[in-house]
Design brief:
Length: 460
């Protein structure tokens, strides 16, 4: 099957009295062509102007120009005072992607603090204060999400901090606006907060023109709707908060695998020429996908940005929701009910194993550290829950295991630092990770007491 790999553009660059005729790949940018003739653009260089007099951005791809286009370099330093003032005015205003993200992280912190206060205080307490704070947080989240969605940079990966800040503030607003009803509680607050945050994510995906932010918003909306469905089902079945919290924690390994399988969104014709190789259709109504003849640099870069945004956003939401649910899902390890005890132990162990072993394949440093920090937080929650109910013998056994693990880590530091890799250990880690993924949700159902609930329903 023949495919067109590279397309080219013929352009002419006029620099003063010199004219340069070039044949440039279509995925190259105007700045690349200008630098190829020994000139430069931007600060200390010139502006690129087409034949009609319109200024062209140096980041413009060659695919946006016509074949045979004539580009002229204009010296900015020799422009008039009005032009210099216009250029300086533009230089003073930094693009949105270069501005500091401290304001968005402040919004994130405000949303986390407000959500913690709302969930840790009784629903009927401070009714007027909760209503005012929830209304203000909802208005602020809607305005911040709209501003960021409208001004999101196109062609670049949208930063994660604004998305996280808007969703955290929206969750806090939805949780604070729960009416003081007798049936209202922590489960209803989490359900309404997650549902409002999912609605905000969907609105941001509709309002933005950035393909990367749209992909991140849709992934966030899907994850939040899944979590809201878990807490909504617990609300309908009159279960306490420990049950949906355990299921939310158990969704981390499964959600990680689902995200990795659903990252890439390319047309089916990219991989197979269906018109040539598919001789028999599956159904009469099947539409044969169109063949993709070429993929340029911009399309590949956009695909990588969208996939990276989906993975970061989805994993961050899953890990944050799971870590926040861990103290409720694993409050203690009671010895009275063996099913709940084994479920809680298996839930914590499987989630930690899946996060630690899943971080080895991550090519993004932020994703590796998010997974490792999430695993460390869950281990800390398990230790805090284990200490009050453990006797001296169990504590001594745990200390022995910790000492053995520390000694083994100390011995493995040297070969790991030298780059020693083992295919056998890698395959063993893959098998252990798959086992943890397969057992995480069943362990979550055991820890949530679903078996006892089903027994009660069958007995009734």
């Amino acid at each position: 099957m023949t495919r067109e790999i590279v397309r080219r553009r013929r352009v002419a660059i006029v620099d003063g009295a010199h004219r340069h005729d070039l044949v440039v790949p279509i995925h190259a940018r105007v700045d690349d062509a200008v630098r190829a003739v020994g000139a430069r653009t931007g600060t200390g260089g010139g502006a690129v102007v087409e034949a009609a007099g319109r200024e062209i951005s140096p980041d413009t791809p060659m695919s946006a120009l016509e074949d045979g286009a004539v580009l002229m370099l204009v010296d900015i330093a020799s422009a008039g005072d009005r032009g210099r003032g216009r250029v300086r005015g533009r230089a003073r205003q930094a693009p949105p992607e270069d501005r500091p993200l401290s304001a968005w992280w402040a919004i994130t912190g405000l949303g986390v603090v407000l959500a913690a206060i709302v969930l840790l205080t009784p629903t009927g307490a401070l009714t007027e204060v909760r209503a005012i704070a929830g209304t203000g947080a909802a208005v602020a989240a809607v305005l911040a999400g709209t501003v960021f969605a409208v001004r999101a940079p196109r062609g670049r990966r949208a930063p994660v901090a604004p998305v996280v800040g808007v969703l955290a503030l929206g969750f806090a607003a939805g949780a604070a606006l729960v009416p003081p009803l007798p049936a209202a509680g922590g489960v209803l607050a989490v359900f309404t907060g997650t549902l409002f945050a999912a609605a905000l994510a969907g609105a941001m995906g509709i309002a933005t023109s950035s393909a990367t932010l749209r992909a991140e918003s849709r992934t966030a909306m899907t994850v939040l709707l899944l979590i809201a469905g878990v807490w909504g089902a617990a609300l309908l079945w009159h279960m306490d908060a420990a049950a949906p919290a355990a299921v939310t924690l158990g969704l981390i390994p499964v959600g990680q695998r689902v995200l990795l399988a659903a990252l890439v969104d390319v047309p089916p014709g990219t991989f197979i020429d269906y018109g040539r190789f598919q001789t028999t259709r599956w159904t009469v109504r099947q539409q044969v996908p169109e063949e993709v003849l070429s993929i340029d640099d911009d399309e590949a870069r956009g695909l990588v940005q969208r996939s990276t945004g989906r993975l970061l956003t989805g994993m961050l939401l899953l890990i944050v929701a799971g870590v926040a649910s861990a103290p409720v899902a694993l409050p203690s390890f009671p010895s009275g009910d063996p099913l709940v005890l084994s479920g809680r132990i298996a839930l914590g162990v499987t989630v930690v194993i899946a996060l630690v072993l899943g971080a080895r394949r991550a090519t993004i440093p932020a994703l590796r550290w998010i997974s490792r920090l999430g695993a460390a937080a869950i281990v800390l929650v398990m230790l805090i829950a284990l200490i009050p109910s453990a006797d001296a013998g169990m504590l001594a056994l745990a200390a022995g295991f910790a000492l053995a693990a520390g000694a083994a880590s100390a011995f493995l530091v040297v070969p790991a630092g030298r780059g020693v890799r083992s295919l056998a250990w890698s395959r063993a880690g893959d098998m252990l990770e798959w086992l943890a993924v397969a057992l995480s949700l069943p362990a979550a159902f055991l820890a949530a007491g679903v078996v006892e609930a089903l027994r009660g329903m069958m007995a009734a």
